[in-house]
Amino acid sequence: MVKFSKELEAQLIPEWKDAFVNYWQLKKHVKKIKLSRKLNLHSQDSHTDFGLSIFDPIRDVVKKISSGICNASGKPENIQVSTDTPKGEDEHEEEEKEVHDDQLSSEEDEVKAFFEDLDEELKKVNQFYKTKESEFLERGEILNKQLQILLDLKQVLADRRQKIQMSKVGAGILPWSHSPSGRGSDYSDSSTEYVTSGSPRETSQTDDVIAALEKNGINFIGSATRSKTKKGKPKMAMRVDIPAIAPARSISAVTAMLWEDLVNNPKKGHGEFINRKKIQCAEKMIRGALVELYRGLGLVKTYSSLNMMAFVKILKKFDKVSHQQASAGYLYAVKRSHFISSDKVVRLMDEVESLFTKHFANDDRKKAMKFLRPQQRKESHMVTFLVGLFTGSFVTLFSVYSILANMCGMFTPRADAAYMETVYSIFSMFALLSLHLFMYGCNLFMWKGTRINRNFIFEFQPTTALKYRDAFLICTCLMTTVVGAMCSLTLLICPLNIFYRSTRYCFIRVIRNIVCSPFYKVLMVDVFMADQLTSQIPLLRHLESSACYFFSGSFGTHRYEICKSGKLYRELAYVISFAPYYWRAMQCARRWFDEYDLNHLANLGKYVSALVAAGARITYARQPTTFWMIIVLVTSLVATVYQLYWDFVKDWELLNPRSKNPWLRDNLILKKKSIYYMSIVLNFVLRVSWVETVIRFKHVGVVELRLLEFFLASLEVIRRGHWNFYRLENEHLNNVGKYRAFKTVPLPFHETDSDG
């Protein structure tokens, strides 16, 4: 049977861990009470372990006289009774009595401390529950209001479109198109029908929209019936705010910023415009907000039930140890507490279910529950079997290849360099990719073991998120099927629901967001993936070599030097080396534009310095002069110091001199501090691997040089996998510190105060 402490640790919400009952501290109090009782029983037994004594009658007389005097005076007094007992025996008895009294008082103090801590924990749980309950109730009211606005707008625009079509049919004019939507929404088409103030028909439509919105207490700019301040300005206005998460929306957002005064200026008589596309986006946003609200309410419900169970378990332990029946009275007080007696969260969950079922699932509750309560994907033993199968196959095939290559003399200095130059690029490309996937699988395994909520940080769906066994399977399968490497791109874009389609499409979407930076809104998963690309520049260079080798026809003539000596190839080397740093810098620029945080500009400087250092190293490899060696030393040194500072202080938030953990941070997930110190040293050593480009070993053959390059590239991939764990650990601890356990979805309709 699993202990409740382990069950609680496995089920509690990691981001709210500090707000839960400190069950482990209360268990320590119970153990102290148990230890005190054992000492008391042991001391009592020690008085009777030696049998009867000739001094027992005298002791009884002394005890009776002492108790009688204490009862008469109301307080204990020290009475000296002269007896024939030896002096040493009396001193021994007094010492035993003092020790026994101290043990009794110690047990009482432990019980008192236990209930004091229990009261504090109950107060803490109630306070946190009230805070979250009020937060979700307020969020629910806002969402209800937003949903009502959306329904009013949809109804008004649908009625107006129907009237316009009927008027056209009555006048003998057929509409351009009349096809029902396939998505169950009246506004899934991309035609533009604006609600503006202009012609009489549009004015009437605008009045209908304004009337619908004024029922919810919101007024449009340009409305004739809006409430005004003393200066004649409207008190409240409404705008539809669609986040600029895509290039088209980014351009629209910039345009809206430039023309906001012109479009929304009440003096010019223009009203806010709303088209069907905005209504469709608003509907999607509200649906996502309802799903997140329901998930958050489920977390609050879990928080309540787990804490109640913790109180029950710890009080049962106390009763068992102290041989008292104190749990019944205290549990009655716990059940009357707010976090148990309040049913507002449950009623709000039922309301969200009914609203979602009615408006977003066509009254199909089963369909609604697929969104609100998605089922977790079951783990299959077949994945573990396939990982072992492909691992064994790869080891066997690689061993056979190594033996045959050694027997044929392919790796000897006399061997033809053409084979190494052509095979090395292809093999290294897949080997580095597989190594990176293997490190990611190790990250997933560690994040799961330490309960770091990666799905919440990366905004992954729990039902389709990749697990560590899946990552290991992809890694071993890729290395085993290197022979069919040209089929990998086809598999990546395959539309069939095979081989982790959701993960493949998510990967393509993230790569698209990175390449198109800064036009897409930057998410944590985009930042994380772009950082991985900065460590895979050798892989991108090998991809360039392989593409050139096959597309230029060199594989038929075996003239690998065509790609090495081409001018375009050499220029592309700079582009490929610069691209990951450029994408990452553009992400920092976009985040600064969205958040106005100067830390993002400082982070941009880090990638610019790395970009300059990478360009200097490429030039030095082609022109090994003293001047370029000095440039490489200076730029690489600046970039390395910059990167190390950002790794330790910003990304990991270590090296804090005021931390309770010397030169680390206050909160640590791993129990052994030495692991963090070793990780700091390891990251420092792997960061300075660029020194090899300056040393330039002499008398090194082609085979040894290529193996050395592959080894250094592998070290960078290992460093990145090692960096990934601590980066996500820090992000998770930031979420824990701010009690962020669910995503806050932005809402489409916003009220703005015109008085500013």
UniProtKB/TrEMBL annotation:
> Where is it mostly found?
membrane
- CC terms in the record's Gene Ontology section: endomembrane system; membrane
Residues crossing the lipid bilayer are: 382-404, 424-446, 471-500, 627-646, 674-690
Give residue spans, biased composition: Polar residues: 178-205
Would I find Transmembrane among this entry's keywords? yes
The biological processes this protein is annotated with in GO are: cellular response to phosphate starvation; phosphate ion transport
Q: How does the protein associate with the membrane?
A: Multi-pass membrane protein
Report the subcellular localization. Answer: Endomembrane system
* Highest taxon of the lineage: Eukaryota
Q: Where is this region: Disordered?
A: 73-106, 176-205
Q: What is this protein called?
A: Phosphate transporter PHO1
Q: Which organism is it from?
A: Escallonia herrerae
